[in-house]
Q: What sequence folds into this?
């Protein structure tokens, strides 16, 4: 039987063509934490311990998938997001760190406020509304999504953490069901914003495995979701309600202009930790 240290090196070597270092090392760490149910420190302290045959076989099956460049989050079936360990599969986009920054912005700007009504549009795995609900327990939080498959994942995540988010299956380009006009304090959205022409710049495993419905917009109409969600926000937000977008950095000024022309106040482009314009916020 292999030791933990030997198995870690075996994973790194086996997936190196699909995921060069240092990514291979990070993935090996995640795989072992998941299969052995040990954290980073425990793995280091127990590096000479032998791995059970069933656990080694589970790792070998994961290696086969990783060698096909399948994202490790899909292989493990989980992704970490703002303190939650969410279920994910190829029906949903893998939550990104910049979306955690969007959640953090909302929580900081509404710290201490009770009884807020919040809608997340294009909810996917439910990462945004679930993180908000977990940190704003008195809020009424909705998650809207067109894909039934994605909503199945979101519901499973809500059940895992016993979070009372209300899920709405609807196309955002149709009327939003079940929410009264002028009733929301916050609308937040990370809609599709990657241009079709940007596919050639993306990693092959993203294109091959992640749902294109959640990623791409036509080259000729990159702001189609932002225009529609802006109209929805004008209808559903209360006076002084807040709108939060994650954006394609190429279109930060266009989104700002769109909101200003729609009559929103306090329109602000917010940079992420890497200094990229990735969020826009505005007040009704």
A:
């Amino acid at each position: 039987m292999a030791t933990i240290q030997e198995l870690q090196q075996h994973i790194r070597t086996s997936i190196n063509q699909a995921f060069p270092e240092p990514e291979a090392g990070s993935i090996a760490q995640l795989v072992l934490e998941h299969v052995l149910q040990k954290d980073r420190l425990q793995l280091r302290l127990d590096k000479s311990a032998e791995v059970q045959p069933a656990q080694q076989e589970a790792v070998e099956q994961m290696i086969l998938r990783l060698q096909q460049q399948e994202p490790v989050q899909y292989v493990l079936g989980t992704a970490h997001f703002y303190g939650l360990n969410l279920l994910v599969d190829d029906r949903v986009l893998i939550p990104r760190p910049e979306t955690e920054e969007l959640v953090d912005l909302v929580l900081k700007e509404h710290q201490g406020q009770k009884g807020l009504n919040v809608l997340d549009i294009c909810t996917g795995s439910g990462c945004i509304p679930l993180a908000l609900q977990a940190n704003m327990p008195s809020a009424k939080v909705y998650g809207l999504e067109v894909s039934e498959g994605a909503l199945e994942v979101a519901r499973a995540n809500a059940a895992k953490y016993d979070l009372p988010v209300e899920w709405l299956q609807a196309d955002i380009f149709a009327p939003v069901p079940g929410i009264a006009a002028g009733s929301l304090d916050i609308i937040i959205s990370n809609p599709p914003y990657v241009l079709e022409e940007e596919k050639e710049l993306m990693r092959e495993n993203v294109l091959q495995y992640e749902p294109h419905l959640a990623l791409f917009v036509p080259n000729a109409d990159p702001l189609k979701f932002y225009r529609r969600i802006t109209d929805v926000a004008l209808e559903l937000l209360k006076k002084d309600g807040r709108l939060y977008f994650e954006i394609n950095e190429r279109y930060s000024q266009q989104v700002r202009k769109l909101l200003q022309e729609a009559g929103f106040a306090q329109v602000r482009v917010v940079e992420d930790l890497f200094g990229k314009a990735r969020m826009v916020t505005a007040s009704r």
